[in-house]
Amino acid sequence: MFAPDLDHLRFVAGRIPGSPPVALNVIKVAESHRTRNLVVEGADETPHVMARTAYQVVYRDGTVMIDSGLDEETHATFGKTPQPFFANRNEELQQALRRARFIVLTHYHGDHAAGVLRSRFIDELAPKTLVTAETARLLVESPHKPTLEIDADTIAPFIVIDYQEAMPVAPGLVLIKAPGHTPDSQMLFITLADGRDFLHSVDSAWHMDNIRLLKQKAAPWVKEDRDTLAEHYRWLKRIDEEEPNVHVLVCHDNDQFEELTRSGVLGDSLV
Fold first, then answer.
1. What does the DSSP assignment read for the chain?
2. Within a domain: 148
C-alpha cells in the first residue's frame, strides 16, 4: 500500500547537510483546454483549463528545478486544436534551467521532460539532469511523443539514479517513488526554512478534486494503474485534511496555480 510516513519524510529531508530552501516558485508555460469530465470522473462537461508547469526550489545560494516544461511543437501534440503556449514564459524557464544547480525530471512524459530534451541548451542541461533508471529506459524505449525520440547516446550524459522508497537529493528536498500515473512516476517532499512543507504529487492527480473527491481521471487516452492511484488519493486526501502545515500540490491544477500564486504561497516568477 502506498502510504509514506510523513515523519520519516521530514527525517529524510534533513539528511543532507545545509540550509533548507527559502522559497518555492512555479511557472506556467502553456495550457490545455479540455472539459472537466475528462479530468474528474463523473464531472460535468464544462470547460476546464489544465496548466503546464515547472517548479523551482530556491536556496540562498542556488536553485533546483523540478521538471522542465515543454517546447511549443511538443505542446501542439497534446490537443487536436491550437492551445495556448506562452513563449516568453518558456524562455524564462529555459534560462532558469541553465542557472539551476540541477534539474529533476519526475517522469518521462513530454510536458515534464521536453524542456530539457528539446532545449537548444541540451548539452549544457543534460549533465545536471537527474532521472531514475526507469525514466531513462522509458525515454529511450517508449518516447511519449513523436518529438521526443532519442537514443542511448542522448541519455548517456544524464545523471541516472535509483532508490527504493525515498531519497534526499538536496537539503529539504526528497524524491518519493510513486508509480501509478506512469511506471516511473515520482512525488516530492519539500520543507522550507520557515517551517512550511509541500508535498508535490506531480501527475497522480490532475486537479485537487481528484484527491478531495477520490475520483480518478476519465480521459480515455490515459492508461494508468487505477488501483495504485486510488491509494495515492487516499493518502494525499488524509495529508490534505489532517496536516494543515503541508500544502499538497498538483502540477496541472490551474485553479490551484492561480490561488497559490495570488496568495504568495508560491512565487510566480523564477530567479
1. -----HHHHHHHHTSS-SPPP-EEEEEEEEEEEEEHHHHSTT----EEEEEEEEEEEEETTEEEEE-----HHHHHTT-SS---B-HHHHHHHHHHHHHSSEEE--SS-HHHHHHHHT-TTHHHHGGGEEEEHHHHHHHHHS-SSGGG---HHHHTTSEEE--SSEEEEETTEEEEE-TTSSTT-EEEEEE-TTS-EEEE-TTS-SSHHHHHTT-----TT----HHHHHHHHHHHHHHHHH-TTEEEE-TTBHHHHHHHHHHTSSBSS--
2. yes
